[in-house]
Design goal:
The chain is of the alpha+beta class. Helix content is 33%, strand content 29%. It has one domain: Heat Shock Protein 90 (2-Layer Sandwich), CATH 3.30.565. The chain is built from four helices and five strands. It has a five-stranded antiparallel sheet with strand order 1-2-3-5-4, covered by helices on one side. It is globular.
């Protein structure tokens, strides 16, 4: 089976839309017949990416939009989360475990580490003042 499919959604940068993003990716991934564990991994990684966009990219400005794209190529699911927010000046530093640019919010600084733990590949592109794009992919083979 060489399934190919694509969808995209945009939603306000509100924390409650993290749940919506999780539901979208889980529903879209369902066509690959993932295990419960794989679905949990996907939802967790998407939560982290969307939360980063809302809290760090947009500083919870509900007038801004987070964009999420989901793509299936064969048994590979790719999820892209994009914001047009403040961007990341030092991506290597931001990806370091326990680093957070918002310590006053008691953030754990584990967002990128969590994404990397649950996905096969995580790419981060960012331009200060222009925004950030996080692209994550995972091979979904039922029974893995």
């Amino acid at each position: 089976m060489n399934l190919q499919n694509y969808t995209e959604v945009a939603f306000s940068a509100l924390s409650q839309n993290e749940t919506f993003a999780r539901a979208v990716v889980a529903s879209f991934a369902a066509q690959l017949n993932p295990t419960i564990e794989q679905l949990s991994d996907l939802r967790t990684a998407v939560s982290e990416a969307v939360t980063n966009a809302i809290i760090h990219g947009y500083e919870q400005d509900a007038s801004k939009l987070v964009r999420m794209e989901c793509r299936i190529d064969g048994d590979i699911l790719t999820v892209t989360v994009r914001d047009d927010g403040c961007g990341i000046a030092d991506i290597a530093l931001a990806r370091r475990p326990f680093y957070t640019s918002k310590p006053e919010l008691e953030r754990s600084g584990m967002g990128f580490s969590v994404m990397e733990a649950f996905m096969d590949q995580v790419q981060v592109e960012s331009v200060p003042g222009k925004g950030t794009t996080v692209t994550m992919s995972k091979q979904i083979r039922h029974g893995d």
